[in-house]
């Protein structure tokens, strides 16, 4: 019986993940952005200056692909590279003022979309969901 329940939990998790991803993609696309562009900007917007490796780990995009995304965003003037004075091998990426203004404009709307997705569950249920998903992710 628990095997069937595990399978059911897996299917429900996958379907809900797909549904959430579609809503988020729709929201981000409405702002003329791709998910990868938005997630990189969002990481820099909230965490400040980061190395490419830190960004890659934060947004779960491999370092090869992240370089392409960073190049595109740099060309658009939304972020910039800065060499580390202490270690020439390290390059920091930071959001520009133009990138910050863009995120100031679109992030509150994005946050509202996320709030709407989770509006049917209580705060206690959200905390429980976070804890359960952490357990599943650590397995």
TrEMBL record:
InterPro entries linked: HTH_MarR-typ, MarR/SlyA-like, Tscrpt_reg_MarR-type_CS, WH-like_DNA-bd_sf, WH_DNA-bd_sf
Kindly list the residue ranges recorded as spanning the membrane: none
In terms of superkingdom, the source organism counts as Bacteria
What organism does this protein naturally occur in? Virgibacillus tibetensis
Report the protein name in the record.
MarR family transcriptional regulator
- Whether DNA-binding counts among this entry's keywords is yes
* Residue stretches making up the HTH marR-type domain: 6-138
Question: Which UniProt keywords are present, listed alphabetically?
Answer: DNA-binding, Transcription, Transcription regulation
């Amino acid at each position: 019986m628990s095997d069937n329940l595990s399978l059911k939990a897996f299917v429900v998790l996958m379907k809900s993940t797909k549904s959430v991803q579609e809503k988020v993609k729709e929201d981000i696309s409405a702002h003329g952005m791709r998910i990868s562009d938005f997630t990189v900007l969002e990481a820099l917007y909230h965490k400040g200056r980061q190395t490419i490796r830190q960004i890659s780990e934060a947004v779960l995009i491999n370092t090869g692909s992240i370089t392409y995304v960073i190049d595109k965003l740099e060309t658009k003037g939304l972020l910039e590279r800065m060499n580390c004075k202490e270690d020439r091998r390290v390059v920091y990426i930071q959001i520009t003022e133009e990138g910050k203004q863009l995120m100031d404009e679109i992030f509150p709307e994005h946050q509202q979309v996320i709030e709407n997705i989770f509006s049917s569950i209580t705060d206690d249920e959200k905390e429980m969901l976070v804890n359960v998903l952490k357990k599943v992710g650590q397995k």
